[in-house]
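Here is an idea for our session: we take a single protein and study its fold together. To get us started, please write out a protein record for me. Once you have written the record down, we can walk along the chain together.
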Amino acid sequence: MLESYLIYFFICICLLLGAFADKQTKHVSGWLSIIICSIILGYRYDVGIDHLTYLDYYNQFLYLGAKIGTSREYGYDLLNYICARTGCSPGVFFSLTVFIQFTLIYYSFRSKTNFLVLIYFFYMTTGQLFGSLNIIRQAMAFSIFLYIIKYIESRKLVKYLVGVLIAFSFHSSSLILIPIYWLPSVWRLTLDKIGAKGHVILYLGITLSSAFIFSYFLSATSEFLSTTVYFNYVPNLGERRMAVNSGLGILLFSIIDVLIIYYSTKIIALYPKAKLYYMIFFIGSLLAKVFGTDMLLSRVAYDLVSLRFVVLVFLICFFDSRKNLLFTTLKVGVIMIFILVWLFDIYNGSSGCSPYKFL
């Protein structure tokens, strides 16, 4: 267990220092930290619940000559195929998957040093990294989505759809990202009118009624879902559960989500670019409450609610801009909560993140 703590502490410090010195070193430190951390994480063994499944899948390409199209997610298959045909070891292949994710995160936020530091901090402490070591394909699809969000803001539909298509080639759940392009227009006509307090009420209402909504959704859509690539999961909808944090962790995340929602109007007034991330996250948080940890349907909310680590950065920056005891206490409190949750995640082996072993 000590080895796991040392490795994750090193990765966290490496990313934070690399981001902090990024501009002073003309991006050398930023890239160096990404390469180092990618290699460490790429050469893991049985770290991430599904890692051995992914390892076996790559070995089919490497040793058995598997063909593109095996998984129906052609982008991921293509990556496997190219790496296998060029003789890359599993360690190199998995290092590349991590490198791609870190690179897309880096390019999405590297323009502001302090912002990038907080991005990495919350990417680690919210458990987003641990999840990416498990559900590799969807984590890669999410990193692509994170990068192409800028095309929603700049209203470049074709570029956005191309990005979604690439994400879809890594994980088919990315289809839900297509209507997100029109979310700002729909938001202005609906949720924008009820304000932050209305969002809090809606969030709490859906949280309390999530079981009923989920039951109704299943009865209405099971037949359609049986035609998707995940048809094997349909008989177990509502029964199969993905591994999650402890009850206390879920409660703390929910409380902080309410905090984000409650201060959203003020955050957006101070940081207008936060609005798009907040809108997507809010919709994702509602879907996550309804679908819970269902093996199939939780994937629908994943790409959206995963933006939590981004909106948390805006929340902390907002607290930091208010120089009084209340907001200083909230800032320190939120940071400490996520540090403690992160430490407990490592101790409990969240998403199979520990004990850490190498190939």
Remarks:
- The two ends are 17 Å apart (CA to CA).
- The mean pLDDT is 90.
